[in-house]
């Protein structure tokens, strides 16, 4: 069966590492991006230069119509989706909860929570064996923050990842008999550009002493776990969480 993966926010960071590894493992890959076409195109070029199949598709995952277009374009250009990685995510400037605005919370939840909801729904409608689909696997990129809570930095972000955890659990049970597995990874401190959006690009240098393995993780270390959860090596695993957090 042809394997087709959609990686949201796949133009950089964990998403880009996942897209490249998925292509190496034989998936035709849709690299979704919101605004940075250049970086998404460079991931696609890297995959194609290595002999793989990839397309880049612009879509804001928090927009219902754009998510539908993302899945339709993938249907048309690559075939029915068999794997979805809900990787797109945002956080904002570190601050105390009492200082945060309602607009900020809406932005965080629109992308991290409702973006994942919309992509899960679009994927399930296509994958479900109840609707003539071939089944599939979904991996949600949660965060260790869902358990740590991120006090004084971004409680809102942590809470959005808590919602992603509940989504993972509930859906895994609801769609198990439709041939779809739903799992999540919870990365810890991973070396990506995301920390700069919190206002502290060198955050990992400050916090790495708290990690038993005494370092931040790499994007590839997260991608390996995601690809395992998507693969036929994990066919008895659903509703599960893999923490990739150096022992935190
Ligand atoms: P990143 O900032 O490099 O990548 C996030 C990607 O998501 C970017 O390409 C961005 O353009 C895209 N994106 C954001 N909003 C979007 C939207 N509305 N529609 C489409 N794409 C959108 O950061 P990183 O670290 O690679 O993050 C990937 C995922 O990993 C996120 O869900 C993040 O919460 C999660 N994570 C990251 C950790 C870290 O330490 N870097 C730790 C735990 C979880």
From TrEMBL:
It comes from the Bacteria. Residues 3-190 form the Ketoreductase domain. Keywords: NADP, Oxidoreductase. CDD domains: SDR_c. One of its GO terms (molecular function) is 3-oxoacyl-[acyl-carrier-protein] reductase (NADPH) activity. Coiled coil: none annotated. It catalyses: a (3R)-hydroxyacyl-[ACP] + NADP(+) = a 3-oxoacyl-[ACP] + NADPH + H(+). The keyword DNA damage does not apply. Pfam families: adh_short_C2 (PF13561). Belongs to the short-chain dehydrogenases/reductases (SDR) family. Catalyzes the NADPH-dependent reduction of beta-ketoacyl-ACP substrates to beta-hydroxyacyl-ACP products, the first reductive step in the elongation cycle of fatty acid biosynthesis. PANTHER family: NADPH-DEPENDENT ALDEHYDE REDUCTASE-LIKE PROTEIN, CHLOROPLASTIC-RELATED, RE15974P. This is 3-oxoacyl-[acyl-carrier-protein] reductase FabG. It comes from Gimesia benthica.
């Amino acid at each position: 069966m042809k394997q087709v993966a959609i990686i949201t926010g796949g133009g950089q960071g964990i998403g880009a590492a996942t897209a490249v590894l998925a292509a190496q493992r034989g998936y035709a890959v849709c690299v979704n991006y919101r605004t940075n076409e250049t970086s998404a195109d460079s991931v696609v070029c890297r995959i194609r230069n290595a002999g793989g199949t990839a397309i880049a598709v612009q879509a804001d995952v928090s927009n219902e119509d754009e998510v539908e277009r993302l899945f339709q374009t993938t249907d048309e250009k690559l075939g029915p989706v068999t794997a979805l990685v809900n990787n797109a995510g945002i956080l904002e400037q570190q601050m105390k909860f009492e200082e945060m605005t309602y607009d900020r919370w809406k932005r965080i939840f629109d992308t991290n929570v409702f973006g994942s909801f919309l992509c899960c729904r679009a994927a399930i409608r296509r994958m479900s064996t109840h609707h003539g689909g071939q089944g599939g696997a979904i991996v949600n990129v949660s965060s260790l923050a869902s358990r740590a809570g991120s006090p004084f930095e971004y409680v809102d972000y942590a809470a959005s990842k808590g919602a992603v955890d509940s989504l993972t659990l509930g859906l895994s049970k609801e769609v198990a008999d439709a041939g779809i597995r739903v799992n999540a990874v919870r990365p810890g401190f991973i070396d990506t550009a995301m920390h700069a959006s919190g206002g502290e690009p060198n955050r990992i240098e400050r916090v790495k002493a708290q990690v038993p393995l005494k370092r931040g993780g790499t994007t590839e270390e997260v991608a390996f776990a995601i690809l395992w959860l998507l693969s036929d090596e994990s066919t008895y695993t659903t509703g599960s969480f893999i923490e990739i957090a150096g022992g935190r």
